[in-house]
Amino acid sequence: IGKNIFYEESVESTQKIAHQLAYENVPEGTVVIAEEQISGRGRMDRKWHSPKYTGIWMSLILRPQIPLTKAPQLTLLTAVAVVQAIEEMTGLIPEIKWPNDILINGKKVTGILTELHAEADRIHSTIIGIGMNVNQKQEDFPNELQTIATSLFIEKGEVITRANLIKHIFANIEKLYFLYLDEGFFPIKLLWESYAISIGKQIRARTLTTTIEGKALGITDEGVLQLEDQHGKIHSIYSADIEL
Ligand code: BTN
């Protein structure tokens, strides 16, 4: 991971560049990193605030030989790798909110966006976007993010060297990815669950079309959230926003 890096000063979105590179069959593990994104994207068509020099904005190309239905597992794997990198670098203990939010003290410090290219029902490549708030000060966040976003600097009170953090993230993704290819999702799932906040709790899941309330039972082997409503009916949630 990260042996082949495209480093850019300013881009629209590293996802967009990584999508183009994926078509050009660059080696697996190729990463696009930018100092700034003009139109960074989040999940569900949201904008991702990506100001210059303060965060880590990068997209990673992986090509696992797995069926499409297993793609969410890579998001969870990446979340574990990022959480461990933050722990190693800062001693802070982040939590994961399904599927991809990494929180510290209840505020979002990192988001992960996994997109893919498919060939029939197989994965051609996955583009894993990681957006991490590293050295922003409180006042650097726009109004609408003030109460929901944080950075490692705000939480730790120290400037964090982004290059070191990136090295930790690469090393951790690589380690977990090889574990995943060798032993499957189970060891990753255990690690993920040990960092997850929503499991066992009463939550509200807002999907694009509906809202379901219930107890989060856990994730399936495919990385799909299982929610039990008040009637005991179990819902499989593939994509949603979770409120605790
Ligand atoms: C989310 O929580 O909604 C996911 C945010 C993902 C942001 C990253 S930053 C690098 C990559 N490029 C983008 O435009 N988005 C992802």
UniProtKB/TrEMBL annotation:
EC number: 6.3.4.15
Catalyzed chemical reaction(s): biotin + L-lysyl-[protein] + ATP = N(6)-biotinyl-L-lysyl-[protein] + AMP + diphosphate + H(+)
Record: residues binding biotin: Q37, R41, G42, R43, K108
Any GO BP: protein lipoylation
Annotated ranges, domain BPL/LPL catalytic: 1-181
Swiss-Prot/TrEMBL keywords: ATP-binding, Biotin, DNA-binding, Ligase, Nucleotide-binding, Repressor, Transcription, Transcription regulation
GO terms under cellular component: cytoplasm
GO MF, one annotated term: biotin--[biotin carboxyl-carrier protein] ligase activity
Source domain of life: Bacteria
Keyword ATP-binding: yes
Keyword Transcription: yes
Family that this chain belongs to: Belongs to the biotin--protein ligase family.
Role played: Acts both as a biotin--[acetyl-CoA-carboxylase] ligase and a repressor.
Protein name (database record): Bifunctional ligase/repressor BirA
Organism lineage string: Bacteria, Bacillati, Bacillota, Bacilli, Bacillales
Covered residues, full protein: 82 to 325 of 325
